[in-house]
Design a protein that fits this description.
Elements (H helix, E strand, L loop, with lengths): L1 E4 L2 E4 L3 H12 L4 E4 L4 H6 L5 E2 L1 H9 L4 H6 L1 E3 L1 E6 L2 E6 L9 E3 L2 H14 L3 E3 L3 E6 L7 E6 L2 E6 L2 E4 L7 H4 L6 E16 L9 E3 L6 E7 L2 E9 L9 H11 L2 H6 L5 E15 L2 E2 L2 E3 L5 E2 L7 H22 L3 H28 L7 H16 L1 H12 L5
Parallel strand pairs: 1-12, 2-3, 2-13, 3-9, 6-15, 13-20
Antiparallel strand pairs: 4-8, 5-8, 6-7, 10-11, 11-12, 14-17, 14-18, 15-16, 16-17, 18-21, 19-20
Bound molecules: 8-demethyl-8-dimethylamino-flavin-adenine-dinucleotide and P-hydroxybenzoic acid.
P-hydroxybenzoic acid binds next to loops.
């Protein structure tokens, strides 16, 4: 058994784990990341694209904001299309100038990997059977195997940043955890294509055939989604069929302008709301998708991972710098307070814009009344903008 020691053992090299490791490093705190996959695999996942200002600021402070600021796009609003018309939601006006940044999670991850490498950060890829031990005691450790060899990593704390299917959450005693979950009866079929985006800003479209979203990564890279049945398969969606379905669900002017092309990525993501409480047991802390999932409609998943890392890193820094454990003790409550508000927003956006197979005539009238109310109320639009740009970190 090969042994080593670090201050914070991090499971998972997604955005949560990488950002935590980077922030801690800048404060002189040592960490090791154990990741199950290869770097290429992690970078091949196409996920989030909308960053709140809080996340963008964290990346800048962590020294990984330069490419985002050069290549990302600042968006001041987005459109909601319904009933043949379009409603513009202004973000900056009602929020004192707050905006969102359009920059792909893949690029954030790439920037963080590069920074960690430059600064000599230790990331163990293809770490198998990662297992936390003695999280209740003062000397926790992780075991894993790599290339058939067994390893042990001793640490002061363990950060579970290993996503929804990771091992961290399962390592907490079952009688300590309480989970809350809602699974939606549909998924999102996403397509990435090297075509100019149909619109400068995002369009969220509510249509009788189901929801559709026009998003982008750059002026030459578009990201589109359509709501699809939960048990659907990408094999059922040749490009031609996808583009036709998307056009049907978009307002006529956008459909007419849409530039189509071969898809370079196509995948289906199920929609789920999920929260586990608490986020800490002993010396194991959960952060990001390991602890909570939101349906992507509110664009909050990655942003919640960032606020978790903000609270957790502050707690760890105060522990090592000032011998002050209050931040670690309040981590779970502080992070969860923000998580639940984003859960509410993501759930309400999902309810507002999707076709729910079980909905009757009354539910459809309620959904339409909600959209009409939003269209006629600057107060409702301001509330949507306030949530979309992201609620404060404290
Ligand atoms: P991740 O990204 O899942 O990373 C977890 C890492 O842990 C590794 N791992 C393990 N390593 C070692 N041992 C184990 N046993 C392990 N098990 C897992 C995994 O290989 C992986 O590398 O979680 P993290 O870091 O918490 O980041 C969360 C975000 O990825 C996620 O919340 C967002 O992508 C959600 N999301 C969006 N969020 C936004 O804020 N804005 C958006 O616009 C947005 N759009 C989206 C999204 C998610 C989507 N999908 C596919 C779920 C759009 C989509 C389609
Ligand atoms: C994306 O660009 O992938 C994206 C944008 C907005 C969302 C969800 C996903 O609400």
């Amino acid at each position: 058994m090969k042994s080593e020691r670090t201050q914070v053992g991090i499971i998972g090299a997604g955005p949560s784990g990488l950002l935590l490791s980077q922030v801690l490093h800048l404060e002189g705190i040592d960490s090791v990341i154990l990741e199950r996959r290869t770097q290429d695999y992690v970078l091949g996942r196409i996920r989030a694209g909308v960053l709140e200002q809080g996340l963008a600021d964290m990346l800048r402070q962590a020294g990984v904001g330069a490419r985002m600021d050069a290549e990302g796009e600042v968006h001041h609003g987005f459109d909601i299309a319904f009933g043949g018309g379009r409603l513009h939601i202004d973000l900056a006006g009602p929020t004192g100038g707050k905006t969102v940044m359009i920059y792909g999670q893949t690029e954030i991850t790439r920037d963080l990997f590069a920074a960690r490498e430059r600064m000599g950060g230790r990331i163990v890829h293809e770490a198998e059977d990662v297992t936390p031990h003695d999280i209740d005691g003062d000397a926790p450790y992780l075991t894993f195997s790599r290339n058939g060899e067994n390893h042990r990593l001793d640490c002061d704390f363990i950060a579970g940043c290993d996503g929804f299917h990771g091992v961290s959450r399962r390592s907490m005693p079952a009688d300590v955890l309480k989970t809350y979950e809602k699974v939606y009866p549909f998924g999102w079929l996403g397509v990435l294509s090297e075509t100019p985006p149909v619109s400068e800003e995002l369009i969220y479209a509510s249509h009788d055939r189901g929801f559709a979203l026009c998003s982008l990564r750059s002026r030459v890279l578009s990201r589109y989604y359509v709501q699809c049945p939960l048990d659907d398969d990408v094999a059922n969606w040749p490009d031609e069929k996808f583009w036709n379905e998307l056009k049907t669900r978009l307002p006529a002017d956008a459909a007419a302008r849409l530039v189509t092309g071969p898809s370079i990525e196509k995948s289906i993501a199920p929609l789920r709301s999920f929260v586990t409480e608490p986020l800490r047991h002993g010396r194991l802390f959960l952060a990001g998708d390991a602890a909570h999932i939101v349906p992507p409609t509110g664009a909050k998943g990655l942003n919640l991972a960032a606020s978790d890392i903000f609270f957790l890193s502050r707690g760890l820094i105060a522990h090592y710098r000032q011998d002050d454990d209050r931040g670690l003790e309040t981590y779970s409550a502080k992070a969860l307070a923000r998580v639940w508000k984003a859960e509410r927003f993501s759930w309400s956006m999902t309810k507002l814009l999707h076709v729910f197979p079980e909905d009757g005539a009354f539910d459809l009238k309620m959904q339409r009344a909600e959209l009409d109310y939003l269209a006629g109320s600057s107060v409702a639009q301001a509330a949507m903008a306030e949530n979309y740009v992201g609620l404060p970190y404290e």
